[in-house]
Amino acid sequence: MRKTRATTLAATAMAAALALAGCAKDSGTSGSSNNDNAAAGSCVTATAPAATAASTSSSAAGERVDASKLRVALAFDIGGRGDASFNDAAAAGVDKAKADMGVTDVRESTASPTEDEAAKEQRLTQLATDGYSPILAIGFAYASAVQAVAPKFPNTQFAIVDDDSVTAPNVTPLVFSEEQGSFLVGVAAVYKSKNCHVGFVGGVNTPLIQKFEAGFIAGAKAASNKVQITSDYLTPAGDNTGFQDPAKGNIKAAAEFSAGADVVYQAAGASGKGVFQAASAAKSLAIGVDSDQYNQATVAEYKDVIMTSMLKRVDVAVYDYIQALASNTLSSLPKRFDLSVDGVGYSTSGGKIDDIKPQLEGYKQAIISGSITVPTTPQK
């Protein structure tokens, strides 16, 4: 049986507090509670929704799933294993499947920043021809290739992360509510900002990365009606080098810090390392993305400036997909990995946000209950 990660939550109390937060695009109102003031600087102007006691459902023990017959292929996005972010999260899910379910045959292949659609199609075709199933396409950039290749191999199972446009019967989409997790780190940024000025650096200006920006802006505005927010992208849509250019990430983030921002959130793949470098040089703070980057070896030298990371649980989605495929329960997968199933969230490694966890949990519960609706496009 597939493990359940859904969190069973009581209805959120304090209706007045939730009305205060309202829709995530609202800027919040003045008058922080004493608890807020104890944990935050003068930037916070809104009372956080009250966090209620919540019970977390434990994973069902069930029968151990044997996935040893599956031949798993990972078609990585730009950066591949070792990017300390998106691809590493996918790799972690497969690594856990190897440890827990006996998967032994795994092949990995990585996209280059400048490759065309033909190269992606060739990669997927080769993996399918070699007998791999499932083939996990890590990233929306594979959508056209999966659309072209999957019908040619009807007995091969495909999964694609961050895209639900392919409707073939042998294709499973693994999509997330990135805006919800980003909302929470936007709140955290305001609570930790001394200058009441926060920033966002996106890798490539696409609708997907705009979801990260949208949530971050909404969360920051929900916590403060006076916060200043600066947003930048490294490259325009179509130029995917923005996900693998730490030097450019450093330059953009350094400019934001120089302009007064003291907390910057990055959603830039491997380019995020440059944002951490800039934060370290500015003696400021940064927010990681996808994985718990405080614990990532490839950015360990900058861990002291990583106050939290927005967790996009690609590892959970990949693991659950392999488990469901092996147990013939694909229909049990959530349609979208959101806060309610711990598909997104925030990390607490390093202890830098321990003092504001009650506020973050209050906002989290308000989003899950529907009292706060987080936009998916930036509301500036």
From TrEMBL:
Transmembrane segments: none annotated. This is Nucleoside-binding protein. Residues 75-376 form the ABC transporter substrate-binding protein PnrA-like domain. Gene3D superfamilies: 3.40.50.2300. One of its GO terms (cellular component) is plasma membrane. Keywords: Cell membrane, Lipoprotein, Membrane, Signal. It is found in: Cell membrane. It comes from Amycolatopsis methanolica 239. Residues 1-21 form the signal peptide. It holds the Pfam family Bmp.
